Amino acid sequence: xxLCQLGLVTASGLNLLGPLLFAHAIDKEIPESDKSxxxxxxxILLILLLGNLVLSYVSRIGSEMAAQGAMYRLKKxxxxxxxxxxxxxxxRQTSGRLIxxxxxxxxxxxxxxxxxxxxxxxxxxxxxxMITITAFKAPEVLWILLLVIPIYVVLFLxxxxxxxxxxxxxxxxxxxxxxxxxxHIRAMPTLQLFGRTPWARTQADEILEEVYEKDVVAHxxxxxxxxALFFVRGVTVAGVLFFGALKVSAGALTVGGLVMALGYxxxxxxxxxxxxxxxxxxxxxxxxxxxxxxxLDEEPQIVDRPDARTWAQIRDGVRFExxxxxxxxxxxxxxxDLFIPAGSNxxxxxATGSGKTTIVNxxxxxxxPNEGRVLLDEVDxxxxxxxxxxAHTGLVQQDVLLFPGTLLDNMGGNRDAAQRxxxxxxxxxxxxxxxxxxxxxxxRGERQLLTFARALVRDPELLVLDEATSAIDPSTEERIQxxxxxxxxxxxxxxxxxxxxxxxxxxxxxxxxxxxxxxQGSHEDLLLKNGVYANLWSLQAGAQA
Length: 545
Prior knowledge:
Elements: H1 2-29, H2 35-83, H3 87-92, H4 95-117, H5 120-137, H6 142-186, H7 188-193, H8 197-249, H9 255-277, H10 279-297, E1 317-327, E2 330-341, E3 345-350, H11 356-363, E4 371-376, E5 379-380, H12 386-391, E6 393-397, H13 407-410, H14 415-424, H15 444-456, E7 462-466, H16 474-487, E8 492-496, E9 509-513, E10 516-521, H17 523-529, H18 532-544
Parallel strand pairs: 3-8, 3-9, 6-7, 7-8
Antiparallel strand pairs: 1-2, 1-4, 4-5, 9-10
Helix pairs in contact: 1-2, 1-5, 1-9, 2-4, 4-6, 4-10, 5-9, 6-8, 6-9, 6-10, 8-9, 14-15, 17-18
């Protein structure tokens, strides 16, 4: 960027020589009919013009490459920062807002570098050079040029004060619109299914109306300002021409000197106008930089300790000790104590909102307990390396997320391990099958089967199934259950389920109610207790009948 700035400064120096050559030709060569001198002047002007074009061209290309490289690294840093954040952070930030930070705000900074930062040294050099040369060559009209500078500064400060809040408001509401569009376009099938498209249209109209109001003002203010600048320029040119002509007629100024002053006046307005034109760019970049800094300054809460331990094989089991957890003011786990023995096939059941999925999130350290501890063989999970914990854990969730690409891409890229996982589930799919649509061409059951295979690729010691068979037909579920029985030996499995039929062979079964562990034991033991579990079993058995 510094080399590009040097190139533009040199180009500005070549620009300064142009009016001097015109003044020389008018005052010396034309009165003396020096044709060879005029030819040489024309040749030199052409060389200056070509040099200016080449230097400007190369500098612009170089600055764009530098800015693109910087923004690439910034986007990468932002994306990796977002990947490392915990779920609580993503609960507070919508995906549309984060997309705007990574894509839109970084582009605003790129424009700042290529349009403002690049030109600033050259503009300052050009401005100082014009004032200096005019002071020596045409001091009689210098006072007009100096008089117009404070006027420009005052106009600029007024414009900046008025426009700045509107630029920030436009950026904020545009970010809100981006988030709205991202969330609602993705949810379009649901909106259509429930007839909520009129509601979505009303919401969009409200946001768009706000965008319109802010955008109109933000664009009208610059129009007024730029026209004021053009008016000042016109008055200044007229003043230089008038007073300069008087000095020429009095013999105090040459015609060439007047032409040079007018040429410099034209050049002087270029950096002033450029700064004015880029006021919006500066404000957008400033707002973008603040928002990017806010994201980068928010450190992840769930990170490895400096002395974090590596994962060790599960020998004893996983234990929750007086674990409490809240989402904001709502406490969802209220002093939970439970133990999952190593090698067991455990399950958690309970009504919706009882805290089952929260237990899974704490077990995988997607979230941290507010109080209490989650232990692996008497070692607090917070003392283990996150990568090790999750590399030895397989998770299958009810919500299926597949990425555009091949089946192999969605299963981690290890062809041998992926093929073994498919074979284990009796799937004959090709690993090179392309899912450009993110798996929309697969049925819901097929998508769920693929997530099972993906979870088994790394041969996990701990397998967590969170409503994993909710979208699978009975025959497919039977095939998966047989496969699970085959792979559970030497593995610890935890199943979260609503349908009790799918976990009747599990032991122990933990029964959650209102954030508390109210019962535990085998299926038969829990039925004999005639408590919450027995009631749930009775209700589901009656519904199936």
